[in-house]
């Protein structure tokens, strides 16, 4: 069985401890290291070369979005899961532009973390249910604005990026 090597980055030690606890209960996941700020996350990612980095958006020294950009530049094969308390569209879109393949909310992290790590390690995307709804609403606004031109292709692209692991019931 292939083990997914994960780096955790959050400025709150208790959050990291909780994330580690959830992940280490999985036989296919190992936590390779922890960082408490963005600069340390970038340095550890370059040293450890994890499969997945779970990044808090709001960290000191270097925020999660900037850290994601630097990690993806140095390690394009490393997948990024953004962890945030922010569910507004601006944060989500900036994280995706920075290279994040997943975006989970802290209030649903316990339920979504393992699925997100597994999905992005397999080259898929993963979004907390609330984030998925926000992305879908954004798509629908753009669809109405453009009158549906190129809608089928755009829709297939979006759906192709959203993991089958997303629970739409929430």
Explain what the structure shows.
The structure is a single chain. 50% of the residues lie in helices and 18% in strands. The protein has 7 helices and 6 strands; from the N terminus they run βαβαβαβαβαβαα. It has helices spanning 13-24, 38-48, 64-74, 89-97, 109-121, 129-146, 151-161; strands at 4-9, 29-35, 52-56, 79-84, 102-105, 126-127. β5 (102-105), α5 (109-121) and β6 (126-127) form a beta-alpha-beta unit. The termini are far apart.
Comma- or semicolon-separated keywords:
7 helices; 6 strands; Rossmann fold; single chain; six-stranded parallel beta sheet; about 170 residues; alpha/beta
* Class of secondary structure makeup: alpha/beta
CATH fold call? Rossmann fold
What is the CA-CA span between the terminal residues?
32 Å
At the first level of CATH, the class is Alpha Beta
A few lines on this structure:
This protein is of the alpha/beta class. 50% of the residues lie in helices and 18% in strands. The chain is built from 7 helices and 6 strands, in the order E-H-E-H-E-H-E-H-E-H-E-H-H.
Question: How would you summarize the topology of this molecule?
Answer:
Blueprint (H helix, E strand, L loop, with lengths): L3 E6 L3 H12 L4 E7 L2 H11 L3 E5 L7 H11 L4 E6 L4 H9 L4 E4 L3 H13 L4 E2 L1 H18 L4 H11 L9
Parallel strand pairs: 1-2, 1-3, 3-4, 4-5, 5-6
């Amino acid at each position: 069985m292939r083990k997914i090597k994960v780096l955790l980055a959050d400025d709150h030690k208790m959050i990291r401890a909780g994330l580690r606890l959830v992940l280490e209960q999985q036989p296919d996941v190992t936590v390779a290291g922890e960082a408490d700020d963005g600069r340390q996350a970038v340095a550890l990612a370059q040293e450890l070369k994890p499969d997945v980095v779970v990044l808090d958006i709001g960290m000191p020294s270097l925020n999660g979005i900037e850290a994601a950009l630097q990690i993806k530049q140095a390690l394009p094969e490393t997948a990024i899961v953004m962890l945030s308390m922010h569910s507004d569209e601006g944060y989500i879109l900036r994280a995706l532009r920075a290279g994040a393949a997943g975006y989970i909310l802290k209030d649903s992290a316990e339920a979504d973390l393992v699925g997100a790590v597994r999905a992005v390690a397999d080259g898929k995307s993963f979004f907390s249910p609330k984030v998925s709804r926000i992305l879908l609403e954004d798509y629908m606004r753009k669809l109405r604005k453009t009158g549906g031109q190129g809608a089928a292709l755009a829709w297939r692209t979006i759906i192709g990026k959203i993991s089958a692991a997303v629970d739409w019931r929430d």
